[in-house]
Amino acid sequence: MSIATENSAWCASTPKRLRPADQSSASGLKSVGTALDVLECFAVDSELGVSDVARRLGVAKSTAHRLLSTLVSRGFVEQDHATGQYRLGIHIYELGQLALQRNQLRYVALPTMRHVARATGLTVNLGVPDGADVVFVERLENADGLRILGHAGRRLPAHCTSSGKAIAAHNDLANQARMAAGFPPRSRGTVRTDADWLRILDGVRRDGFAASDSAAFEGASSVAVPILEHKRAIAAISVFGPSELIAPQVDRLVPLLTAAANRISRAYSA
């Protein structure tokens, strides 16, 4: 049984990236920014119509249609001619795969992640900070083939994940970004206040690991250890699974994850 559905796992509350102020008056650059805003619309919904895109961007339907047509011509978006709906195109997939393949941290982390996956039988994640969120740039599903998160959950609010807590405890920018964004609840175990967040980060610094129980998804838990570069967290490695499997193993998982994080850090710095 799947713990999360695709729609519920996306971080729909993530704010759009702000455009530099000096680009607002340049029509060409503004058009580029608007085209990128179109692509961002598909982060939550798999398919959208022209009216949907126009409404979300606050532009005329003719403008939305022109932007979508341009993106279709370049392979970034494709149209289902039977329904008229639009979805992300194959070229987005190609570029995404290139970005992953060229990510040095992911490259050096993969052998260690595979070792942790074999040793635990749990889903293993590599998360990196991005503003107030964590993006999981690699995920190795649990060994029994049960897809707990499926294709979703690549971006989550930092306060809903053990990885986000582990990173924020050793990364001031990530911590400040999350505090500025607030702590909207997702599940019964979600952090909800500044005081609780700061208390948790103190515990992470003291204990060397972070844990979450039903913070993003009911009945799911995770344990994470930060990956440090010059004492600053650049990522976190975590294990994720049903709470009844994670809770009894925390004492065994923490040393394993700590050794893995140290190994990744050394390989990345070499």
Q: How would you describe what is shown here?
A:
The chain has helices spanning 6-9, 27-41, 50-57, 61-73, 90-101, 104-120, 162-168, 172-181, 194-207, 243-246, 250-269, and strands at residues 77-79, 86-88, 123-130, 133-140, 155-157, 210-213, 220-229, 232-242. 46% of the residues lie in helices and 19% in strands. α3 packs across α4 (61-73), α6 packs antiparallel against α11 and α7 (162-168) crosses α8. A hairpin with a 2-residue loop joins β3 (123-130) and β4. By secondary structure, the protein is α+β, with helices and mostly antiparallel strands. The chain has two domains: 16-95, Arc Repressor Mutant, subunit A; 103-269, GAF domain (Beta-Lactamase). A six-stranded antiparallel sheet has the order 5-4-3-8-7-6, sandwiched between helices. Strands 1-2 form a two-stranded antiparallel sheet. The protein is globular and about 60 Å long.
Structural class of the secondary structure composition?
A: alpha+beta
Give unreliable regions as ranges.
1-13
Q: Kindly provide the radius of gyration, computed on alpha-carbon positions and rounded to a whole number of angstroms.
A: 20 Å
The CATH topology of the largest domain turns out to be Beta-Lactamase
Global geometry:
globular
Strand proportion, as a percent range, falls in 15-25%
Determine the N-to-C terminus distance: 41 Å
Order of helices and strands: HHHHEEHHEEEHHHEEEHH
Broad CATH class of the largest domain:
Alpha Beta
